[in-house]
Design brief:
The structure holds two protein chains of two kinds.
Chain A: E1 3-6, E2 10-12, E3 18-25, E4 34-39, E5 45-51, E6 58-60, E7 68-73, E8 78-83, E9 92-99, E10 107-110, E11 114-118
Parallel strand pairs in A: 2-11
Antiparallel strand pairs in A: 1-3, 3-8, 4-5, 4-9, 5-6, 7-8, 9-10, 9-11
Chain B: E1 4-7, E2 10-13, E3 19-25, E4 33-38, E5 45-48, E6 62-67, E7 70-75, E8 85-90, E9 97-98, E10 102-106
Classes of the chains: A mainly beta, B mainly beta.
């Protein structure tokens, strides 16, 4: 069965960087986009960007351009999201999610989420 | 960015009730509209994709309709496990955007 397993919770200071991993199993890693979505405490869902694990091509929300980098390592079937210049309002649960189908952007499979806390 | 507006923001209902949630897009998005269910502390779950399609395993009491700018999620007979927050998402434009969420609460 399809599984996405994310790395554990992180506590970071303002200005630092965080890198969250998302290990995929149960499907062909290179066949589906991986999306990253975040959710601040008590708030709604916010799309950050996506990566094509086959080509490495990325598409980032304008809000995060210049601060986020999404990568993939096909040898270990793992996607990564790195966010730089952390601020307190980056405190959120970060989810990776796999597209429903190769040509769809709806997300059928989700990781368990990674809480990133930014605090001095 | 395409703005997605859900209504109501919350609804109080009882088991067995029919519940309808609407989602309006700021411009036409064809049928690139999806619905998610989220329980507290859990990842979202895809309920409906492309406006009206149910992924495998989603109960048939959930249905979706609409195209263009106006969409509806209907739960025909609310079950205890359906008390949750529901989000619509458009993937017609970039970036994909979500509605603000609708919380279905116990009446």
């Amino acid at each position: 069965q399809v599984q996405l397993v994310q790395s554990g919770a992180e506590v970071k200071k303002p200005g630092a960087s965080v890198k969250v991993s998302c290990k995929a199993s149960g499907y062909t890693f290179t066949g589906y986009y991986i999306h990253w979505v975040r959710q601040a405490p008590g708030q709604g869902l916010e799309w950050m960007g996506k990566i094509n694990p086959n080509s490495g091509g990325t598409n980032y929300a304008e809000k995060f351009q210049g601060r986020v980098t999404m990568t993939g390592d096909t040898s270990v079937k793992t996607a990564y999201m790195e966010l730089n210049g952390l601020r307190s309002d980056d405190t959120a649960v970060y989810y990776c999610a796999r597209a429903h189908s190769p040509d769809s952007s709806s997300c059928l499979h989700w990781g368990q989420g990674t809480l990133v806390t930014v605090s001095s | 960015d395409i703005q997605m507006t859900q209504s109501p923001s919350s609804v109080s209902a009882s088991v067995g009730d029919r519940v309808t949630i609407t989602c309006r897009a700021s411009q036409s998005i064809n049928s690139y509209l999806h619905w998610y269910q989220q329980n507290p502390g859990k990842a979202p779950k895809l309920l409906i994709y492309a406006a009206s399609n149910l992924p495998s395993g989603v109960p048939s009491r959930f249905s979706g309709s609409g195209s263009g700018t106006d969409f509806t999620l209907t739960i025909s007979s609310l079950q205890p496990e359906d008390f949750a927050t529901y989000y619509c998402q458009q993937t017609y434009g970039t970036p994909p955007t979500f509605g603000q969420g609708t919380k279905v609460e116990v009446e």
